[in-house]
Amino acid sequence: MKKIVGAITLAFLVGLSFHSPVSAAESKGTVDAVSGKPCFKCHRSKVKAPFVHGGLADKECTPCHSVTGGNHQNDPILYGVKDKSSKICYECHENQSSKKSVHGPIQENDCLGCHAPHVSNFKYQLGLPVDKLCFECHDKSLVTDKETDKNGFRDGTSNFHYLHSGEKTAIPCLSCHDVHASTQEHLIRSKGINGKEEVTITYTTTPKGGNCTVSCHDALGYERK
Ligand code: HEC
Ligand code: HEC
Ligand code: HEC
Ligand code: HEC
Ligand code: HEC
Ligand code: HEC
Fold first, then answer.
1. CB of 38 closer than 6 A to ligand 2?
2. Is the pTM of this model over 0.85?
3. Which bin fits 51, alpha (ψ -120 to 50), beta or left (φ > 0)?
């Protein structure tokens, strides 16, 4: 997701201006015309945290909030967010929803299902650390059941998610899946990481299962029977 060239250029220019003694003062960002104060002065929690979203670089609020006339302290809707769907995110990030497989929440335009728009305690502006995130929406039995007859990733009834990502092996979900979208079925990513080595993953579906070739080992398959 890298359609942020404009933003980066801007950040670069701002970065340069820090070296000039004239504009060494802290940026005010968007200012509230009614009180004459910068927005962040009254809403500090939106700009202070271990991780602050790059979209609030320089404490600007207007990329996402419509700042119209009137006193918003009486009528908060005046400074409401323009759009709570992914549309607002696609102003700066790449829309991947035309790829072959697209994750459910992306299809539903729900970036906020996983990301916080302003600040976060976790990397990537996530609402939860990545190892807990998946089980907010997916049943834990996906990886805890040794045998299964419901999940797709199984050979006969042997649960391949248990085999790969159960407590013994614990391969991270994102070693195989892309969290947003992929050019391969079932969100299988085409490039993965094995230790320090980058590997290519070629995945194909079969009528009752799938085959996977990873550049560092032979083709392996599974069949639900
Ligand atoms: C002088 C202090 C002050 C300034 C400056 C200020 N706000 Fe607010 N803002 C408030 C107060 C007080 C409320 C109402 C109570 C609350 O929800 O926090 C509010 C509410 C809001 C809400 C609605 C919150 C909700 O729960 O619905 C938004 C959005 C908002 N402000 C955005 C902004 C933006 C954007 C700016 C700058 C253009 C700004 N504010 C500047 C004090 C301020
Ligand atoms: C990248 C987009 C984006 C930017 C930039 C942004 N906001 Fe928001 N803001 C949102 C979204 C989306 C929501 C709605 C969140 C929700 O409903 O879960 C929101 C909600 C809010 C709210 C009310 C709900 C809450 O979380 O308390 C306040 C207050 C607020 N923003 C203040 C600000 C201020 C002040 C700035 C600038 C310093 C700012 N925002 C910049 C996207 C943004
Ligand atoms: C005004 C432009 C803008 C908007 C709108 C915007 N972003 Fe961003 N976003 C950025 C910039 C700039 C970065 C920092 C890029 C970097 O560090 O490589 C960023 C980074 C991110 C990151 C990665 C953080 C990290 O740690 O690498 C996530 C996740 C993200 N944005 C999600 C969202 C979501 C979700 C929305 C919609 C609610 C959104 N963005 C809207 C500009 C924006
Ligand atoms: C199901 C949860 C989930 C949803 C929904 C989601 N993301 Fe993410 N996003 C993540 C995770 C997890 C990462 C960290 C990926 C990693 O560790 O490689 C991430 C990383 C990112 C990054 C930074 C790294 C990169 O891939 O460039 C951006 C930008 C981003 N997301 C934007 C978005 C936008 C925009 C949306 C909505 C269209 C969205 N995300 C929806 C979970 C999600
Ligand atoms: C906000 C809710 C949410 C979160 C969080 C979430 N998912 Fe999903 N996921 C869905 C929905 C909705 C679907 C589509 C319906 C279904 O298959 O259950 C889906 C489907 C999938 C699929 C099947 C895709 C296909 O084409 O067959 C995979 C793989 C997947 N998710 C992986 C993950 C991983 C890995 C994580 C954690 C990084 C995660 N999900 C976190 C909601 C979520
Ligand atoms: C070794 C690679 C690999 C790992 C690691 C992996 N998956 Fe999968 N996953 C797959 C394959 C392959 C499928 C497609 C199964 C099929 O044929 O329908 C799949 C399918 C899914 C589905 C769709 C439902 C289903 O049962 O088919 C979800 C949801 C899912 N994975 C979530 C996760 C989560 C969450 C994790 C981490 C706990 C994870 N996956 C780890 C390979 C993997």
1. no
2. yes
3. beta
